[in-house]
Please model this.
Amino acid sequence: MGAIGLSGFRPEQADDLSRYLKDAGRGEERFDVMVKGARCAGCIAKIERGVKAVPGVRDGRLNLSTGKLVVTGRSLKPETILRYVRDLGYDAQPFDAGEILDAGDWEGRFLLRCMAVAGFATVFTMGLTDAIWYGGGDLGTEARRNFFWLAGAISIPATLYSAQPFFQAAWRSIRSARAGMDVPISLALLLSLGMSIYQTATDGAHTYFDASVMLTFLLLIGRYLDHRLRDRARGAARHLLAMQTLLVRRQGPDGTIQTVPARELMPGDMVMLASGDRAPVNGMLADRGTELDLSLVTGEVLPQAVAQGALVQAGSVVTGLPVLLQATARVEDSLIADLARLLEAGQQVRNRYVRLADRAARAYVPGVFALSVLVMAGWLIAGAPLASAVTSAITILIITCPCALGLAVPAVQVVATERLFRKGVFVKSGDALERLAQIEKVVFDKTGTLTVGNPVLCDRERIAPEILDRAAKLARASRHPLATALADAAGPGEAASDVREVAGSGLERGSGADLERLGSATWCGAENPGAVQLWYRRGAEAPVGFRFEDRIRPDAKALVRELEAKGLSVEMLTGDVPLIAARIAGEVGITDWQAAVRPEQKAHHLEALAKANIRTLMVGDGLNDAAALAMAHVSIAPGTAADISQKAADMVLRGGDLMPIAEAIAVARKARRLVLENFALALAYNLTAIPLAALGMVTPLIAAATMAGSSLLVTLNALRLMGGGKS
Model:
C-alpha cells in the first residue's frame, strides 16, 4: 500500500539505528523491521529474498500479520537493510511494538477513503454521461464535448486517486515479475481513461469515464472486505505484543519502588506483584509462597499453590498473597516472548498459503495481457486505425477483467460465512474455508474445549443442605473459581457480611465457637484432604469437603463420532495430568491423546504435523493454545475462549455447542466445490466473449455489461450454498 500514512524512520536518524540491534546468540545480531505494503505470499518471498542479499544477513522472516520482518546475521547495518526493503517498493522502519499497537488500521482507513471518493465520483460522472446518452440527439457537438470534459474532470483525478491500491500492487507485481490480477485491472483503467480523453478531444462518439470510476468503486468494495477479513487475524500478535510492553514495579536494593517498562527488566531485578498482577518475566518467588493462575502456562483454570523459591513462568497471574519476584530472564527470553515467536511462526506459515484465486491468476493474467496485445497488433496489421485497434485491446481487457474470477472465491465466502454465522460459527479469516476443506486431522485442547472449563460441584447429594447454604454465604463474598462454583451450586442467596479474606488460605467470619472458615484443607483443619479442593468448617465441627471437576460438553462425544465419520482422525492435547486426561479422552471416544503438554510443546507438535504434510484443524480456548492455533493449518476457538485465542483462531464458535464445527467442515467442502464451479463458469464466459471482442463485434460499453453479467452468474451460483446439504 505504498507510503500512505507512514511517519517513522528518516535518513538523518541513521546514526541512531544501532540501538535497535539485539543479541541473537551464537555471535549474531537481530534487527526487527516494520514493513508496510506487503499483502500476499509473493510479497513475503520477495522481501525475504531481497534482505538475504544484504551483506552480513543470514536469514530474514516476515510476519504478514504484524508487518514484522526479523533479520539475523553478523555485523548488520540497519540503514542498509531498510534501504533494500524500500527499494523493493515497501515502506520500512525499525520495529517498535508500542507504535504498532497505537498505529491503528491505517490501510483500512485508506481503502475507505478511496472507496468514498470513487463512490461519489461514480454518481456525478454517471449523471453527466447519462445526460449525453439520453439527450444526445438534442445536444450539439460542442455541448456534448463539454459534458465529456466535465465527466473527465471528475473521473480522471478520482480514478487515479481511488485506484492507488491496484496501481501500487500492479507495480510491485511488475517489478517482481509476478502475475497478479491488479495488472490487467490497472491497464484497463488507465487505457480506458486515455482512450476517453482521445475520444473527447477528437469528438468521438463514446467515452468510458463513467465505466472507469465505477469499476474502481466496485473493485474497492471487494478489496476492503478482503482486508477486513485479513485484519481480524492480526489481533493475537498485537495482544501478545501488548503483554510485553506493560509497566511493572521494580524494587531497588534500597527498597525504593520505580515504575518501568517490562522490557527494561534484567536478571536479578526484584519485581513487586500484587494479587491480580501478571508476571512479566520468568522468575523465582523471593519472599514467600502464594497462589498462581497458570492458565497461560498449563491451560488449567484452578489456581495452584506455590512455595517460596518456586520458579514462575511469565504470564502466570498472582491470585493469592502479594509477592516479590526475582527476575531470572529478560522479557525477550520469557514464555510470553516464546509464545509470541511461535505465534508469528505459525502466521508466517499461514501467510504462505496461496489461495485458489491467486493460483488461477498466475496463469490467467499473463494470458489476458498477451491476448490484448495480439488483438491490437492484428487489427493494426489488418490496416485498422490506431484508435480502433486500441479500442479492441481495451475491450479485451474489460471483457476479460477478472471480476468474475475475482468474485469466484469471495462470493462463495460471503455466502458461506453468512450461513455459518447463522449456525453459530464466526469466520474471521478470508481463506479459512479453503484451508478447512483440506484438513485430515482434528486436534482438541481439553479444558474449556471438550470440557466446559469451569469447575462444578460433585456429589452434591451427600452434603447437608444447611451446610451447603452456610458455606455458600461465605463463597458469595469471593471471586475465587471454586467459591464461585460453590455459590452457583447452591443457587441464588445472600452473601455473608463481615467476611475476612486471608490471601492464599480462604475466607472466615465470626470468632470463637461461631468462627466459620471456607478455604484450603490446612486452613480448615482437614487431616486427609485427598482429592478434595475446598473445605468448610464452623467452630469445633468436623470440616466438610467439597469436590469439584470439569464437565464434558454435552455434544463432545457426538462431534468426535461425526468427525471420524467424515474420515478425519482426532487427537487431544492437554496440560492436565494423565489421570484426568485419560478419563476425559475415554468418555468422548478419543484414543490418541497426550497429557502434561506445555504451550510450546503444543505448538511444536502442530508444527511437526505440518512438516509431515498432515493438514490439521486445531480447536482450543486457553491463552496457552494461541501459538498452537496459529501453527495449525486452520483453527477454531470456542466463544468462551481467552481473548488472545479468539484473535489467533480463524473461526470462533458463538455459543457453547461444539457440533457447529462439523457443520463448518461440511460447508467448507461444499464451498470449495462451488468455487471450482465458478472458475469453470468464468472460463466458459471468457471462451465465448473473447472471440467476439477480438473480432470487433463488442464495444467497450457492451463489454462492461457482459462483464457484469458474468459476475452476476458466479454470484447466483454461490447462493446455492444458502441451502442445506452435507458433504
In short: Residues 250 and 258 are 5 Å apart (CA to CA).
